[in-house]
Amino acid sequence: MKKIIALLLALTLVLTMVGCGGKKEYLAGTVSDTGVVAIGVPGQPANTDPALYDGSLAARAVLGMLSQGLTAVDENGQAVGAAAESWEISATDDAAKRPVYTFTLREGACWSDGTPVKAEDFITAWTRVISGAVDSPCRYLFDVILGARDYENEESELGLEATEDGKLVVTLEGDYSGFAHMLAAPAFWPIKEGEMAYNGRYALADITENVATLKPNTGYRGEKPAAGLALKYYYGDLAALETLAADGTLQATFGYAGDAITHGMGPSFFNWEPDELPIITLYAGYIPMFISVMVHSKGSKPLMRYILPAVAILGCCFMVYCAFVAYGIQALYYLGFFALVMAVGALVRITQSRQKSKPE
Fold first, then answer.
1. With bands split at pLDDT 50, 70 and 90, how would you rate the model's confidence at 12?
2. HEC string of 204-264?
3. 140 burial class (0-12, 13-18, 19+ CB within 10 angstroms)?
């Protein structure tokens, strides 16, 4: 009976605390402009120069929309054509037999200013990285190209050539089977020399301190976005993005779950990572143990029998409360599982006790 009482106390605690936490609903507000998708991105707007790509969330959110390389990597990890419609691999005629990649660019592909994307645009972008004209963190990747490692000035020869029929020919220093995959990296994406133009699905229409607006690139020849659908990226810290999400400004998020901008209501110390939730709710399982100590430790001093177990119970209750504040119904799932385990354990013990008490 004592074990059952302890179990009921724990279950009562679980059921009582269901109403303590409320999970906020994000990304469910009224869309003020059906022609715009508003996206929340942690951080500050990133540089849109592909050569300066730093891997940040802000850079990943926008660059992939604005620019496109010769290749892309599909969901199976295979290199597929992007700005390049196809490519062929051959070898030089000399004894070195260096690999030669010949890329055929996608016909009709244009920059956002309406001019065609050319092989020279790739050569311009790559040469500025190789020469050090732009301080790219990916400069070392270009050393696979013939002459790139020893490049000194404009008179240095590189294994880059634009043919009369518009193809891009790249000669490598040696055999490098992953070259087609490597070209999907932003550092190898093209630029329009002297102009702010983009060859991706979208073009940068406007940018302020915290908002970047992208509009479809009509010259893009890949899979196009819905006609007239613009993207508006809102940058800021998580607290600012939480406000925008809660009032319906945001319809999507990048790099984080929209319903986890802040995991729930209350002070920031309530907010834990999702993988910590099972550990936090595990404290609920300790509560019956401490109650049992208070009930059965009849010969112990008040400090050991009542005070310390009571403090421990309060600590466990606080952890469970925090779990509900932060995760709402998710915490109930874990607590329900622990309650079930405790109930099974209690029934087993009761059954064993009854069997032992029966006369033989």
1. very low
2. EEEECCCEEEEEECCCCCCCCCCCCCEEEEEEECHHHHHHHHHCCCCCEECCCCHHHCCCC
3. exposed
Q: How many C-alpha atoms does 99 have within 13 Å on its Cβ side?
A: 15
What tokens were used for 46? 């990133």
Q: One-letter amino acid identity for 264?
A: G
Q: What per-residue string of b and e applies to 274-304 under the rule 16 or more CB within 10 Å gives b?
A: eeebeebbbbbbbbbebbebbeeeeeeeeee
CB distance 43 to 256 below 8 Å:
no
Classify residue 145 by its DSSP letter: B
Of the given ranges (19-23, 278-282, 355-359), which has the lowest mean pLDDT?
19-23
Q: What pLDDT sits at residue 26? A: 36
Q: Which residue has the higher pLDDT, 160 or 291?
A: 160
Contact yes or no for 182/188 (Cβ under 8 A): yes
How far CA 140 is from CA of 130, 182, 188, 263, 327, in Å, comes to 9, 12, 12, 41, 45
CA atoms 350, 353, 358, 360: torsion sign: positive
Instruction: Calculate the dihedral angle through the C-alpha atoms of 192, 197, 199, 200, rounding to the nearest 10 degrees.
Output: 140
| Cα–Cα distance, 352 to 356 (Å, whole number) | 6
CA atoms within 13 A on the CB side of 341: 11
Return the higher-pLDDT residue of 136 and 316: 136
Candidate ranges 17-31, 52-66, 177-191, 249-263; pick with highest mean pLDDT = 177-191
Query: Is-contact 192 112, C-beta < 8 A?
Result: no
Backbone phi and psi for residue 135, each to the nearest 5 degrees, phi listed first: -85, 80
Rounded to 5°, angle at Cα 129 from 123 and 135: 160
* Helix spans in 146-212 (H): 179-182
What would the two tokens of residue 171 be? 């000669």
CA–CA gap between residue 235 and residue 219 (Å, rounded): 27
Residues for the chain: how many in total? 360
Which of 50-54, 214-218, 334-338 has the least mean pLDDT?
Answer: 334-338
In the 8-state DSSP scheme, what is residue 18?
A: G
CA 283 from centre of chain: 30
Q: Is 176 helix (H, G, I), strand (E, B) or coil?
A: coil
